[in-house]
Amino acid sequence: MIFIKLFWAFFNIGAFSFGGGYAAMPLIKQQIIVQNQWLTFNDFTDLITISQMTPGPIAINSATFVGNQIAGIPGAFFATLGCLLPSCLFVTVLSWAYNRYRNLSLMQDILGSLRPAVVSMIAVAGIDILLPAIFPSGSIAFLTGQWKLRPVIYFVVAIFLLRKRKDPIIVMVLCGIAEMAVQLVMPGV
């Protein structure tokens, strides 16, 4: 039964995560935290961080990680298969339809209307990951001890560097090195 639940949960994620991995994060969160309660929100943010540090798409890495956590290697297999199958089916059908109807203005209008929705999904996912880093207590309050300044600084510097077309891996490494340096100089701060 758990294998079917894992397959179905990640099949839904794979089927509706238009726009790539970042757009899939709200769907992943809904399935693994809210509906099935397989992970806590803190585990979810750790999962996203780990998924960014490993090769492969976020949704696939999440499926493999969650499946393994819940039901071992068979769980990882079924969750990953569930996540992959919709894409294989959709791409096959869509490539046929796109090649046949790509010159229709309706096709271009449909694709254009999906872009704002995808951007909003990416923004929500980013906010969901950023807020717990800044407000570890869970409540958004700018009282002393209720929020952290360093994640805000890392966020602003990372945006600046990424907008300057710096390599995202280098930006991540630099943020990690900066935090390591802070912890070595001022432990516990």
TrEMBL record:
Membrane-topology descriptor: Multi-pass membrane protein
One Pfam family, short name: Chromate_transp
Top-level taxon of the source organism: Bacteria
Subcellular location: Cell membrane
Transmembrane segments: 7-28, 76-98, 110-134, 140-162, 169-186
Coiled-coil region: none
Keywords: Cell membrane, Membrane, Transmembrane, Transmembrane helix
Family: Belongs to the chromate ion transporter (CHR) (TC 2.A.51) family.
UniProt name for this protein: Chromate transporter
Organism: Clostridium boliviensis
